[in-house]
Amino acid sequence: MGEKGLQTPAKKLFLWVRKQSKKVKTVLGFVTSLTLLVTLKLLIRDHNHFFVLAEFVHLIGLLCLIYKLSTLKTCSGLSLKTQVLTAIFLAVRVFCSFIMEGDIHTILDFVTLVATLWVIYMMKFKLKSSYMADLDTMHYWYLIVPCAIAAFFIHPTTAHFFFFRMLWAFCVYLESISVLPQLRLMQNVQIIEPFTAHYVFALGVARFLGCAHWIIQVYDTRGAYLYLAGRGYFWIPMVFLAEIVQTFILADFCYYYIKSVMSGQLLVRLPQPV
């Protein structure tokens, strides 16, 4: 009785939200995001911690996948293409970070890369029979080529070689859209089992934290952060845009994930595409 009573307000809230128009839902989403941003700004003083938290949350999501692959012995519902794209941008970022920075982010990215490579190995060899290749339909080059072109023209202006600066930009752009194959596969399946849902939700939280960093930085500098000298006039606005794109790409799924959790459902059900 106690648990049912505790869940009732949440169910009522999501039923109410569900009945609202898209315009009202958009306003509610904006207000909720703004509230979270203000809370994060008050709680976290060092802006660098946003990225550390984002990388840590990403790793937690991967641990959910590792648990699923190790115990359930199936990779159904997972996009191999998203994992490969993730491994690519992580490998590039580890390489560039080792040369250009070499800090805690390098270590976290390396651990995340190793976990991602293990997931790829399990999907390609050990659990290949359960991989939904026919539903993982998005092509690599549709995502990689535009990122490479954008990186060639828009990249940070630093003292490092052009090639390294372009690689850094490439991994930023690729990260922002690497989850698209996973979202496409989930739209094809429509019913998402818990551990895959946990993983994608973790990506959404990680991207929100990264986006929060840039929004708070821009707010604190009254917009001047977008055009810092020595960084290239288009680079930081492009990074800011990439973070926003990532957040919005995952926002819709996060809504259905939270709705399912609050309703006590283990499976996340996505609406049929119009």
Quick synopsis:
This protein is mostly helical.
What topology emerges from the helices and strands here?
Layout: H1 2-19, H2 22-43, H3 48-71, H4 80-100, H5 104-126, H6 141-153, H7 162-177, H8 180-189, E1 191-192, H9 194-220, H10 235-262, E2 268-269
Antiparallel strand pairs: 1-2
Helix pairs in contact: 3-5, 3-9, 4-5, 4-7, 6-7, 7-10, 9-10
Task: Provide structural commentary.
By secondary structure, the protein is mostly helical. It has one domain. The chain contains ten helices and two strands; from the N terminus they run ααααααααβααβ. It has helices at residues 2-19, 22-43, 48-71, 80-100, 104-126, 141-153, 162-177, 180-189, 194-220, 235-262, and strands at 191-192, 268-269. The longest helix has 28 residues, at 235-262. Mean pLDDT is 80; it is low at 1-6. It is a multi-pass membrane protein. InterPro entries: ER_ret_rcpt (IPR000133). This is Er lumen protein-retaining receptor b. The chain crosses the membrane at residues 26-44, 50-70, 82-100, 106-127, 139-156, 195-216, 236-258.
Number of helices, where a helix is a run of at least 4 consecutive DSSP H or I residues: 10
- Which word captures the global form? globular
Strand order of the largest sheet: 1-2
Largest sheet: 2 strands, antiparallel
- Structural class per helix/strand content? mainly alpha
**Radius of gyration from the alpha-carbon trace, in angstroms:** 19 Å
SSE string, helices as H and strands as E: HHHHHHHHEHHE
Fraction of residues in β-strands: under 5%
**Share of helix, binned:** over 70%
Contiguous runs where pLDDT drops below 50 for at least 5 residues: 1-6
